Structures are given as C-alpha cells and as structure tokens.
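Write out this protein's structure.
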Amino acid sequence: MKGVVLSILEALESEPLGPGDLASRLGLPRYRVLGIVHALEELGFVEKIYGRGSYKLYILSGSGRALLSASRRGVELREALARALEQAVERPGGGQAESINNSGEAGEALA
C-alpha cells in the first residue's frame, strides 16, 4: 500500500484540489490531509493557486513533480525527501526543496 504523502502528490499531479477534496478521495480525515498539504507547501512540493477564506486549491509544483518522478523510478520517498530537505536547509534562505535528478540525488535547481 502506498503512503499518504505519495497519494496526495499523485492526486495533485492531475488537477488542482483542496484538502477537503483530497480527504474525500483518499478516505482520510481532513485535518490529517490539511497538515500534510501545509507541510508540503512549506517545503515547496505543492503550491497554493487559490485561496478565499478557508477554501484553498493546491497543485503539484516542479519540486513535487521531481519528487514524484524519483519515487516512480524506485527511489524511496523517505530517501528522496531527506535529500531534498538537506539541500533546502544547507542553502542560504532555505525553504524551497531542491530537485531530484535522474539518479535520485538532490540537485541544485528544481524545475
């Protein structure tokens, strides 16, 4: 069974969705999905494209696409996330995660 983070990334790959929509599709509590989406946004893997009041829509960012691609090539999601986080912390200004190149290594520029 695939993990929640990977399921969220895959769902956001095809269309913009809000946390409530994601929770319904994945059969998870909204608070859990919302927390994960906020963390993914902070790390630069998803982007908020619309927000009005409590209603928000998110899409997969270039960094998120690179992470999902690495996962599909067999790179363990935890390993790919750890590498991206290390790069983000080491970079001045931090915040945005780095890319994952074809070998699964964290790169310097995320698409």
